[in-house]
Design brief:
Layout lengths: L1 E6 L4 H9 L7 E6 L17 E5 L2 H5 L10 E6 L3 H7 L2 H14 L4 E4 L2 H7 L4 E3 L20 E4 L9 H9 L6 E4 L4 H9 L6 E3 L5 H10 L2 E4 L8 H8 L4 E3 L19 H12 L3 H36 L1
Parallel strand pairs: 1-2, 1-3, 3-4, 4-5, 5-6, 7-8, 7-10, 8-9, 10-11
């Protein structure tokens, strides 16, 4: 039995843990943590897991004693690269706690979504475990549209660079519509100050079906992060054939037509948006197909790495 444990939310971190539970041919289960206390895992021993991977956030630090009650091998998943961990103000401290747990034998492994971090720590029990992805029923069916719509559909954490993204969008001469999810008071005020209020729709929370529908219909999305672990949102957009403006932080991405080299250069952002909006129908659809191919390659590589690592651990138990 292989178990992953993580928060009951809509973040890429939760998705990473849930998708990992499918990277094993035998019995597996993803357990969602909905409350602050440890009572939701009081019966986990009945499942007799051979390997349990727990999301490395504050929940497990508050409830670290539960580790002693989980049978089999145990590991913590730490997704953030170092830059993102530093921006968060607390994840570096968390990382040091997980290393201490390794040294004390409380956990057997530390899994990280950053290969650079795993390589730098140089420990046999620190393993790279990238973000896997099941393909669901997401089919490539991208249609060309004349309407120049752009969407910002990520969370608004500091490393996501939302303020510069909005400022860059305001420099576009061709944009007709901006879609944003979960725009709070500060972002709505910036949208107004940047002259975007008349063309912006705040979509609020989107269900999965609504989210994929929006990705399908827009012409372009943005993920102009200062730091990024993997970014499922960018992957899903690319998998559906919708181009994404990205920064060099997405190390698995390799199309320079969509690359913003300086995430603080709002003129570069505006110019790049207009370059995409100026593409002919055939050129846009060619770019769309390439986006799908990039996503497929990332999925294949990550899924293979995860299955190989998990299988190798469980075979040794």
């Amino acid at each position: 039995m292989f178990i992953t444990i993580g928060p009951d939310n809509h973040t890429g971190f939760r998705k990473h843990l849930e998708e990992l539970s499918y990277c094993f041919n035998g019995q597996s289960k993803f357990i969602r943590i909905k409350k602050r206390g440890s009572e939701e895992l009081k019966n986990v021993h009945l499942l007799k897991p051979k390997l349990t991977i727990i999301g490395g956030k504050n929940w497990i630090i508050r409830n670290y004693k539960i580790l002693n009650k989980i049978p089999g091998k145990k590991g913590i998943l730490f997704c953030s690269p170092l830059a993102q961990a530093e921006i968060s103000k607390e994840e570096i401290s968390n990382l040091l706690i997980y290393i201490k747990w390794l040294e004390e034998g409380r956990i057997d492994y530390l899994f990280t979504g950053s290969k650079d971090l795993a390589d730098t720590l140089k420990r046999d029990n620190v393993l790279y475990l990238p973000a896997p992805f099941r393909k669901y029923n997401l089919k490539y069916d991208k249609k060309y549209t004349n309407r120049n719509t752009i969407a910002i559909l990520n969370d608004k954490m500091p490393h996501k660079n939302t303020a510069n993204t909005l400022a860059g969008i305001s420099k576009s001469k061709l944009i007709k519509e901006v879609l944003i999810n979960g725009a709070e008071k500060n972002w709505l005020r910036l949208i107004e100050l940047f002259g975007l209020k008349a063309i912006t729709k705040n979509l609020g929370f989107l269900s999965n079906s609504e989210y994929y529908e929006v990705l399908n219909k827009v012409k372009l999305t943005t993920h102009l992060s200062f730091s990024e672990g993997f970014c499922y949102a960018a992957l899903e957009s690319l998998y559906l054939g919708t181009p994404v403006l990205i920064t060099p932080t997405l190390k698995w991405f390799y199309n320079t037509k969509l690359l913003i080299r300086d995430p603080e250069d709002i003129n570069e952002i505006g110019d790049k948006i207009d370059e995409i909006f100026s593409l002919s129908k055939s050129d846009y659809l060619e770019l769309s197909i390439n986006c799908r191919e990039i996503a497929e390659s990332a999925i294949k590589n990550n899924n293979y790495a995860c299955v190989k690592t998990i299988d190798s651990i469980i075979k040794l138990i």
